[in-house]
Design goal:
Layout (H helix, E strand, L loop, with lengths): L3 H5 L3 H7 L5 H14 L3 E8 L5 E11 L8 E8 L1 H21 L5 E6 L2 E5 L1 H7 L18 H10 L1 H5 L4 E8 L5 E10 L9 E7 L1 H19 L3 E6 L4 E4 L1 H7 L3 H4 L14 H14 L1 E9 L5 E12 L5 E10 L1 H15 L9 H18 L2 E9 L2 H8 L1 H17 L6 E6 L2 E9 L1 H16 L3 E3 L2 E3 L3 E8 L6 H17 L5 E3 L8 H14 L5 E10 L5 E12 L3 E3 L1 H11 L2 H21 L7 E4 L2 H5 L4 H11 L6 E6 H6 L3 H11 L2 E7 L6 H4 L6 E4 L11 H16 L3 E4 L5 H9 L4 E2 L10 H8 L8 H7 L7
Parallel strand pairs: 19-20, 22-24, 24-25, 25-26, 26-27, 27-28, 28-29
Antiparallel strand pairs: 1-2, 2-3, 4-5, 4-8, 6-7, 7-8, 9-10, 9-13, 11-12, 12-13, 14-16, 14-19, 15-16, 17-18, 21-22, 21-29, 22-23
Helix pairs in contact: 12-26, 14-15, 18-19, 20-22
């Protein structure tokens, strides 16, 4: 508002008088500092125009020449920025008035000009991890996890805002502590006509939503590629979703299945109580798990392993059921085949010793519970060897098959006839009327022996000797009951054959010897009479040492060397097995550490557990204590349990899970000799199957044993389990196992159970090279542990 002539002639003091009194010192100080430094400057301040009105100006200057010299001058421009400053003040006033509102909304709000934060509400400060007022004046770049993200927003979004448009995007932002969160950001110019004057940006925290979306994407990917079939069913029973594996197993496509009742694949093999129990379990526990027979689209029946889980909403109401299943038809077929091979006599198709013992064990439990008696009849054909020697084994085999059929015809439907081997048969009679009932059946069998048998054109007269023991009076233990029937059978032979005898205690000798054995056994540990030998477990194709199995030995000053076959049953019967088992475990773990110090690292120590140890409750604390005391890593200890422990001990699964939680390895010993469910086996936390020596010893002479061994190896592969063969005695057996995929073995072909020093000498760091195959061949023999 001043005339140009006046301004052209004005001195610095004249200009100072135009500057607002409150800004004069600030303007002068800033200008002098810049001029003395010879640097350009920008200063915002207020002036009073000729009309007395307050205006805002921006002064920019560039000094020319040296400060204080005759030719020093300043080239500059003064801009009128009053309108912009008034806008800013209006905005600040508006923000001040609305601050209380903005500080309490759920969204973060930033006022930004030229990529710098002018102000922020409390929610924005909290979202980014800053305190009150700490964001103001900072570059917006601090809010981004990297330069690329920063440039992306400003290059992609800011031009839209600059053109007066709204911009919105989901972007990751960086908090003050370095963590990253997902925010939904939208921005717009304060004034569409002047977008460069500033913009408002609103932020909403969507981190939880993004995490949920990521989980859904991951779940969808898993469902798409998982081998198990998945079906989601609503509360009305209609199929709401399936995955590709559902179609692969059932044959129904998504279009065919969606909206259909879940009974679409029902095969009709289960009765109403089955489904009632399933729904009851779902209601009580929230899930159901089990086997179920279903139909494919083509009508083929298959067996599935199914898990159903209920899905509840926030109100705890069931909204859907998730059904996950796999086709276990082939597993069941393999199980049935293996069970039959392992539990039936291949010649007569009768139950073998293993299956007989299993049925006898269950029968004894039922008889004890119901207060009934049962009888065991041990049958031996008299002079059967003469038939084989004179007429040939083919005639002997045919005779045995005919006798199996004839003996079965003398029994009731619920009785069991088994062949133990050779010419020995055994009968289980449940619910008999004591001695009179057993005598009646024995009489029928003796009458059978009076009839001639025609085999291959030969008329033969076969007689038999029968021994009978009764439960519970003649033994409350399976082995004792069978042994006493065997003793009675030999008494029948001693009395002229072709007759039967009931067991009597007078037939047994050695009762006093057993008492003496029990007494000496209890003192054996404290007298240092017990010691361990170790049988190596090796890699078949390389001979590399993979581990050792600990085998307990007893050298009694009174009795001499006592076989484990003799003292282990006594230890189990008397309960001493718990103390003995703990000593074996501790000594084996200590030996591992001694070998370590000597420079021999044995990868694994295998220790057997007795069924009696499981019956006394959890043994995991004892195992954990031994590992802690000896310092042995849990992963180097493998505990071996038999199938009978798993299937017939009530708390076995819980104990096994507790042991696995300790970190030790678990193996099923003598696999194939028990009666386990393979579906049950597949859910056990075991890592190793051990093929029982009884299936190895006859290889390659017995094709039945070969088939069982191959089936176990294949089963191990299917379940991702290691397989170790026990009792390998020659190169042919080793080659057979390796050829069929079994890579680990133990037995006399490799080494007899040996003392710790012998293990160190052979496998330790100072051992000399030697021909392992020759040494193994020289030591081959029966593996009696």
């Amino acid at each position: 508002g001043y005339p140009a002539e006046r301004l052209m002639l004005a001195t610095t003091d004249d200009w100072a008088n135009i500057i607002h009194p409150e800004d004069r010192r600030m303007q002068r100080q800033a200008a002098v500092e810049a001029l003395m430094a010879g640097s350009p400057y920008e200063i915002e301040y207020r002036i009073i125009d000729a009309g007395g009105v307050e205006r805002w100006v921006l002064e920019t200057g560039q000094p020319q020449g040296a400060w204080g010299s005759a030719d020093f001058r300043v080239d500059g421009i003064i801009y009128d920025i009053s309108e912009r400053k008034h806008d800013e003040m209006r905005i600040e006033a508006l923000l001040t008035e609305q601050g209380a509102i903005l500080d309490n909304v759920m969204f973060g709000v930033l006022f930004v000009r030229e990529r710098r934060i002018v102000s922020a509400n409390r929610r924005a400060e909290g979202l980014f991890g800053y305190g009150e007022g700490e964001l103001a004046g900072r570059s917006t770049e601090i809010l981004f996890p990297g330069r690329a993200a920063y440039e992306h927003l400003w290059l992609a979004g800011h031009p839209e805002v600059a053109n007066g448009l709204e911009a919105g995007e989901e972007i990751q932002f960086r908090r003050r502590d370095g963590s990253v969160s997902w925010l939904l950001v939208s921005g717009c110019a304060l004034d569409a006509a002047r977008p460069n004057e500033g913009s408002i940006w609103v932020f909403a925290d969507i981190t939880e939503r993004k995490l949920a979306e990521e989980k859904l994407r991951l779940a969808a990917t898993v469902l798409e590629h998982i081998a198990d079939a998945v079906a989601v069913v609503d509360v009305s029973g209609r199929i709401a979703a399936i995955n590709p594996a559902f179609t692969q197993i059932t044959g129904y496509t998504e279009m065919e299945a969606l909206g259909q009742q879940s009974s679409l694949t029902r095969a009709g093999r289960h009765d109403d109580p089955f489904y009632q129990q399933m729904w009851q379990d779902l209601h009580d526990a929230g899930f159901w798990r089990g086997e179920r027979w279903e139909n494919r689209k083509n009508g083929e029946v298959y067996l599935e392993w199914l898990t159903v889980s209920s899905v509840r909403n926030d109100a705890d109401d069931v909204t859907h059921y998730v059904c996950v299943f796999s086709d276990i038809t082939e597993v069941r077929q393999s199980q049935d085949k293996l069970d039959h091979l392992a539990h039936h006599d291949p010649l007569t198709a009768l139950p073998n010793r293993l299956l007989f013992h299993d049925r006898l064990q269950h029968a004894m439990i039922r008889s004890s519970r119901e207060g009934r008696q049962l009888a065991v009849l041990f049958i031996d054909l008299d002079r059967f060897k003469n038939v084989n020697d004179t007429l040939g084994h083919h005639v002997g085999d045919e005779l045995l098959k005919q006798m199996a059929g004839a003996l079965t015809g003398c029994l009731r439907e619920g009785d069991t006839l088994a062949r133990l081997g050779g010419d020995e048969f055994i009968v289980l009679l449940e619910d008999v009327n004591g001695e009179p009932g057993a005598r009646h059946v024995a009489g029928k069998l003796m009458a059978l022996f009076e009839q001639p048998v025609t085999v291959a054109g030969h008329e033969l007269f076969v007689t038999g000797s029968i021994g009978i023991s009764l439960f519970p009076q003649d033994g409350q233990d399976l082995n004792i009951l069978v042994r006493n029937a065997d003793i009675a059978m030999y008494q029948a032979k001693a009395r002229g054959r072709n007759g039967y005898q009931f067991y009597a205690p007078a037939m047994s000798s050695g009762g006093a010897d057993r008492l003496r054995l029990e007494s000496l056994l209890r003192r054996a540990i404290e007298r240092d009479e017990m010691f361990l030998h170790y049988q190596p477990q090796v890699e078949i194709d390389t001979g590399r040492l993979l581990g050792v199995e600990a085998l307990v030995r007893w050298n009694s000053p009174e009795l001499g060397a006592v076989s484990p076959v003799r003292f282990i049953p006594v230890a189990e019967d008397t309960g001493f097995i718990s103390q003995l088992g703990q000593w074996v475990l501790a000594e084996a773990c200590c030996q591992m550490t001694r070998w370590d110090r000597a420079g021999l690292t044995v990868p694994k120590m295998a220790v057997n557990l007795s069924v009696r140890q499981f019956e006394r409750g959890s043994i995991a604390p004892m195992v954990a204590g031994v590992l802690r005391d000896t310092g042995l890593e849990a992963a180097r200890l493998q505990l071996e349990v038999t199938e009978s422990v798993i299937m017939h001990t009530g708390d076995a699964l819980e104990c096994i899970n507790e042991l696995r939680a300790v970190g030790v390895g678990l193996a099923i010993d003598d696999f194939g000799t028990g009666y386990s469910s393979l579906a049950y086996l597949s859910r056990l936390p075991v890592q190793t199957l051990k093929i029982d020596r009884s299936f190895i010893q006859a290889i390659p002479l017995d094709t039945n044993d070969e088939a069982i061994a191959v089936a176990i190896i294949q089963l191990g592969k299917n379940l991702n389990l290691s397989v170790i063969a026990e009792g390998v005695e020659n190169a042919e057996q080793a080659d057979f196992l390796l050829r069929h995929g079994c890579r680990q073995a133990q037995g006399y072909f490799y080494s007899r159970p040996a003392a710790p020093g012998d293990i160190l000498s052979r496998w330790g760091p100072t051992r000399q090279d030697h021909d392992e195959s020759n040494e193994a061949g020289a030591s081959a023999g029966g593996d009696v542990q």
